[in-house]
Amino acid sequence: xxxxxxxxxxxxxxxxxxxxxxxxxxxxxxxxxxxxxxxxxxxxxxxxxxxxxxxxxxxxxxxxxxxxxxxxxxxxxxxxxxxxxxxxxxxxxxxxxxxxxxxxxxxxxxxxxxxxxxxxxxxxxxxxxxxxxxxxxxxxxx
Length: 142
Hints:
The chain is mainly alpha-helical and about 140 residues long. About 85% of the residues lie in helices and about 0% in strands. The protein has 4 helices and no strands. The protein has helices at about 1-30, 35-65, 70-80, 80-125. α1 (about 1-30) runs antiparallel to α2 and α1 (about 1-30) packs parallel to α4. The radius of gyration is 29 Å and the shape is rod-shaped.
């Protein structure tokens, strides 16, 4: 009975990870295309999926806590393949997430450099700006 419930939770977790993987692919496309609105939407969707994964993990912990030591070992042995699939999916997601993070950090650094060069350019241009008009000290027309 408990084994079936744990198996359902793990299958649900695997399907959520597959959904998250699809969102990660869309995230990479949005980052590569500099599509900020799409990226924001994808991140919000990812947040929802991650919340579901956390709930599944909590539910799984509750069911595992109810099991005895022998039952845990037997269930772990029976569901070993499902666990391996979940681990593989998580590793792929983490790898893609790390790549996205590197891309965004590089983009941030590039923007920082542009801002810095604009500030330097603006400072240099101040010296070449128009001087303020000096008003005559004697009033009236001369």
